[in-house]
Specification:
By secondary structure, the protein is mainly alpha-helical. It is built from ten helices and five strands.
Length: 207
């Protein structure tokens, strides 16, 4: 226990508290000896990353329970399912292969914060095949996953603002029954404006 606490950068007292709260799985026992392994260290690093992002221990305990019982993390975080995006089911090993060397506890915590990842039994579910493929492509091109996730968080803020703008526009001038039918029009406006904005930015970029 002392060795695990030192490796995680916490006190033994804190580690005991985490054990009592059920935040880490019990150790493997051989007689009176308790063995901890990399799985426990990874969990402690994930807890530290979640705490840094403002999660409470109660919230982290809920996430831990979700992972171990097969509940959907999106449900725990109160994230609704996407209406168009195709979820992708992955094993932890497949996720690691997609982002070789980049699936750190900190990046995992950031992906959970964004709602990109959820769980279903022992599998991990990424909420969007498009986002998964684009993220993996950017990492293969040399962009660190941590930076991809930071950019995703900023895009989320702007996307929420755009969605609010169009939702207000459509609800003010269309019947509720027509909102889903008109939804693609709002997307087309955003896609066209983003395309033109990229053209303007890239024309001015150094060659």
């Amino acid at each position: 226990m002392a060795e695990l606490a030192e490796a995680a950068g916490i006190t033994v007292r804190t580690l005991r508290f985490y054990r009592e709260r059920g935040l880490i799985p019990p150790p493997r026992r051989e007689g009176r000896i308790a063995w901890y392994d990399e799985r426990h260290l990874a969990r402690l690093r994930t807890i530290a990353a979640l705490l840094e992002r403002g999660h409470t221990l109660t919230g982290i305990a809920d996430l831990t329970t979700a992972f171990e019982s097969g509940r959907d993390v999106g449900e725990v975080l109160e994230l609704g399912p996407p209406t168009e995006e195709e979820p992708v089911r992955l094993t932890p090993e497949e996720l690691a292969d997609r982002f070789a060397g980049e699936v750190t506890p900190e990046n995992l915590a950031a992906a959970l914060d964004l709602g990109y990842l959820a769980t279903d039994g022992e599998d991990i579910v990424h909420v969007s095949r498009r986002l998964l493929d684009v993220s993996a492509s950017l990492v293969r091109e040399g962009v660190p996953l941590a930076e991809v996730l930071k950019a995703g968080a900023r895009v989320r803020e702007h996307a929420d603002a755009l969605a609010a703008l169009f939702a207000e526009l459509l609800t003010a001038h269309a019947e509720e029954a027509d909102l889903q039918r008109l939804r693609p029009l709002a997307k087309s406006v955003v896609e066209a404006e983003l395309s033109m904005a990229l053209d303007r930015r890239l024309r001015g970029a150094p060659g």
